[in-house]
């Protein structure tokens, strides 16, 4: 009986404690949960004959967004997609875009294909090869280039290009500038096309060598002011230089050591930003000869300015915003939400008509600009994923 009585008392005490706890809990307002930010996924554009097709370089010029892909280049305008009616290009070469022309490489590497951006359907497409480039040997092929960076570039009516001999020794320097003959399109005189009878007026060689060694190939080319910034391979030495339209070459650094350009962008403020295999460089004056490194990475590094915001990526499915990029001591790397990009390789980024376009090896992705800047909730430091660090 004593044990039964003790059990009854213990049971009553337990029930009383529960009642008190319930009363106290019911008397308090519940703590509201913090709303989780909405995650908006990238959507893949499914237009024309590509779904999961490799899409590369993007360029906003005027009221158009030009894109490069493995099938054929084209552009967006006014919410519609337009595709150049051309044969398959080799994606390794990418494409070069200018105000008047889109330039690519034929799949057999024998021709630079110059498509007028306006009136391309009028059959004013030109093929530059040994048949119309003065003194170009029959066995010369376009150099494959590196990492889908175009190793050719148009600035005005001057085209910098890189070739290689199909035999053991070439009879012509493989890197040279072509001065192009431009005409007005008969159907629309305000637009330009290449002269059909003589598209190339003359060849301008590069007047540059190192210790008697000449330039083997162009690695990457970026139009810059009245010429180009480019990376050269000189008998196994990869350096970066400024090239003028008359063929003069000036190395960016006194010490000739490996430096391969992956990105070049000059802001409206005049500031110059450059990326290479080891990180990012900054020149407040805009001079390519006054570069200061402000971030390092151990992976292939690309970047794009979206107005005054800096976006970077390293060849996987991640995108980052760099905050305080003008003040290295306060620099911050922010991971951006990448839902919909998982497993793809980011190639380029562009803002056009209020939407963010991201090209990848899985197609062309898009989302609204406001959704693009949403920070991804990650537990680890995003700088670890891309080997990012700030120099001391």
Please provide a brief summary of the model:
This protein has 392 residues and is mainly beta.
Q: How many extended strands?
A: 33
How would you characterize the largest beta sheet? 5 strands, antiparallel
Low-confidence stretches: 1-7, 13-27
Averaged pLDDT, please?
83
> How much of the sequence is in beta strands?
35-45%
Shape: globular
The chain-level structural class is mainly beta
> What helical percentage do the residues reach?
under 10%
Show the helix and strand layout.
Elements (H helix, E strand, L loop, with lengths): L1 H26 L15 E2 L10 E7 L2 E6 L4 E4 L2 E4 L12 E2 L3 E5 L6 E5 L9 E3 L11 E3 L10 E3 L2 E8 L9 E6 L1 E4 L2 E7 L5 E6 L3 E2 L2 E2 L2 E8 L2 E8 L2 E8 L4 E3 L9 E6 L5 E5 L2 E5 L8 E5 L5 E5 L2 E5 L5 E5 L8 E5 L9 E7 L2 E6 L2 E6 H4 L9 H4 L7
Primary descriptors:
single chain; 392 residues; mainly beta; five-stranded antiparallel beta sheet; 42% strand; disordered N terminus
Description of the structure:
The chain has 392 residues and is mainly beta. The chain is built from three helices and 33 strands. A hairpin with a 4-residue loop joins strand 3 and strand 4 (74-77). The longest helix is centred in the N-terminal third of the chain and has 26 residues, at 2-27.
